[in-house]
């Protein structure tokens, strides 16, 4: 086996970490972003009070009766770097009390976005390596090296994962090996926004083997797996980000209804292509519309 192949094979893992996820700022941000659980009065405490605040947020469990007055508007899967002016868009969201996890598809996108939105409240760039953007072997190795270096500096990760849909099935094993290396590089206490098209079981297997299922906040973005896979992810303590695209299908609406409020987050998965003009006010309104649609499905 040559060195290139060796670097893409599944790494050996240490024993799984404790099932208790560290109360990192990333974890606390994700808990505070739950639209039906965390009252606004708790948000500052969550950001300042570490493990005590996390435990308090976790104990809240089910939906909060005052969610419509107090719940935050946080887009937990937004391709922020694909807007024409990511910095202006981020500042517009922040000025409206909203926030986002700014997912990227390649390490270079993360580096650029980080410089554009530095210091913007409630906006966190996320380091990504999307399965559609891995490239051929040599390019993938360079991207993986960059990802592994940058992962030591952040606990916000996304978009990462697997896609075994028809268009990407041929690269399934290469994707799996790359995702295993990604998971090995991710720090405990990280938040991970995860792509899992026709691959939720494989994603869960890699997360479990690497220890990330136990020591990170794993968020399935736009979950479209089977009901059995949904149950497995839910029971493992994973979160699920739900947005307008997911709510268009009957299965998506039913999954949104089934996901416990304490494990549900908002997303938009917008924009759909790079260079899109941004409207922060319209985006905040879309998040509110999505939140209300989910609340209606759940009878809140």
From TrEMBL:
Residues 11-21 have a biased composition (Low complexity). Gene3D superfamilies: Metal-dependent hydrolases (3.20.20.140). One of its GO terms (molecular function) is hydrolase activity, acting on ester bonds. It comes from the Bacteria. Pfam families: TatD_DNase. Residues 1-21, 43-66 are annotated as: Disordered. PANTHER family: D-AMINOACYL-TRNA DEACYLASE (PTHR46124:SF2). This is TatD family deoxyribonuclease.
């Amino acid at each position: 086996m040559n060195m290139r192949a060796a670097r893409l094979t599944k790494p050996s893992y240490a024993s799984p970490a404790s099932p208790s996820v560290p109360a990192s700022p990333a974890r606390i941000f994700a808990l505070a972003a739950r639209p039906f659980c965390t009252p606004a009065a708790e948000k500052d405490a969550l950001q300042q009070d570490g493990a005590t605040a996390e435990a308090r947020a976790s104990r809240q469990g089910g939906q909060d009766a005052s969610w419509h007055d107090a719940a935050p508007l946080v887009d937990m899967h937004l391709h922020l770097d694909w807007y024409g002016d990511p910095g202006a868009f981020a500042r517009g969201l922040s000025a409206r009390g909203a926030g986002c996890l700014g997912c990227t598809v390649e390490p270079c996108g993360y580096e650029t976005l980080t410089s554009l939105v530095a210091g913007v409240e409630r906006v966190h760039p996320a380091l990504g390596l999307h399965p559609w953007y891995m490239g051929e072997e040599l390019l993938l190795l360079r991207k993986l090296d960059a990802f592994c270096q940058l992962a030591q500096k952040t606990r916000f990760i996304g978009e990462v994962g697997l896609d075994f849909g028809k268009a990407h099935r041929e690269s399934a094993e290469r994707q799996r090996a790359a995702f295993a290396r990604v998971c090995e590089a991710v720090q405990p206490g990280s938040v991970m926004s995860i792509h899992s098209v026709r691959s939720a079981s494989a994603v869960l297997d890699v997360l479990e083997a690497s220890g990330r299922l136990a020591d990170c906040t794993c968020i399935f973005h736009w979950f479209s797996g089977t009901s059995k896979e949904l149950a497995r992810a839910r029971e493992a303590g994973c979160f699920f980000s739900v947005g307008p695209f997911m709510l268009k299908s009957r299965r998506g609406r039913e999954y949104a209804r089934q996901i416990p409020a304490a494990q549900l987050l908002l997303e938009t998965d917008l924009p759909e292509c790079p260079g899109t003009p941004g409207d922060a006010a319209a985006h905040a309104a879309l998040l509110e519309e999505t939140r209300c649609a989910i609340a209606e499905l759940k009878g809140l």
